[in-house]
Each structure stands twice: as structure tokens, then as C-alpha cells.
Amino acid sequence: MEHTAEALEKKEEKVGAAWDKAHPDAKSGKGPYAYLTSVVLRRRGAPVPQVLLLKFADGTSERVVWDNEQLWQRHTWSKPVKAVSAELDPDRVHYLDVNKLDDSRPLKADKSAARRWSVDLAAAFQYLLSLIAIV
What we know:
Layout: H1 5-22, E1 30-42, E2 50-56, E3 61-66, E4 72-81, E5 83-88, E6 104-106, H2 112-134
Antiparallel strand pairs: 1-4, 2-3, 2-5, 5-6
């Protein structure tokens, strides 16, 4: 028997509602189905040992050591809670990184760095315009 997407969504909502009713004090990020979290690590330089810190919605975290010479590696977790963020080198041991901003990925995007750069660029542009207006 083949199920349509609508039928599967209705079944998922029904199971989710039953789970919420049975677990009224469950934390956000938990549910009736296990979350499959997959993290792909890619190396673009020298093979130095790295640590991956994965944080979950219930406050738990897992550390994985990447100490081989492979160019990429995939790690997968199946847990009842979803992952919130993944961070490479959380202890800031290796400073010879070209870009430290690409060492972490949160579930919800943090746009504070982009806002900061935009404000700095706007300030520089306004300063340039004020110099032109003075001359």
C-alpha cells in the first residue's frame, strides 16, 4: 500500500499530538520520533587532531575526536532529541585556522557577525561621504 504525503503528515500530527498528551512536561526538541543528526567534517589543510562538540536540545552534548588523516568524515547520531549546534575545536586549541567563523553551525542561524560587518561598512561609507562633503 502506498501512502501519500498528506496521509503521512496527518499520521505524524496524530502521533505527535498523542505523544504531547502523554508527555505534557517534555522539553522542547523532544518528540515521538528519533532525530537523525548527521555531521560531515571536511579538512582543507594539515591533518591535525580536532574535536567536534555536538550539543542537543535537552542540554546534553557529545564530543568526537577526529585524529586521522582523512579529508572528510561523517558522524551520525540517532537520538530522541534534535541537535542544536555543532562546533569544531570548541576549546580553541588550534589558532592556525584561516576562518574561525566556519567552525560552528547552529540550528538557527546567528546573524550577528553579518550585522556587525554591515554596520562597519555603513559607518565607513558615511565617513567617506562626510569627507567628500567637507572638501
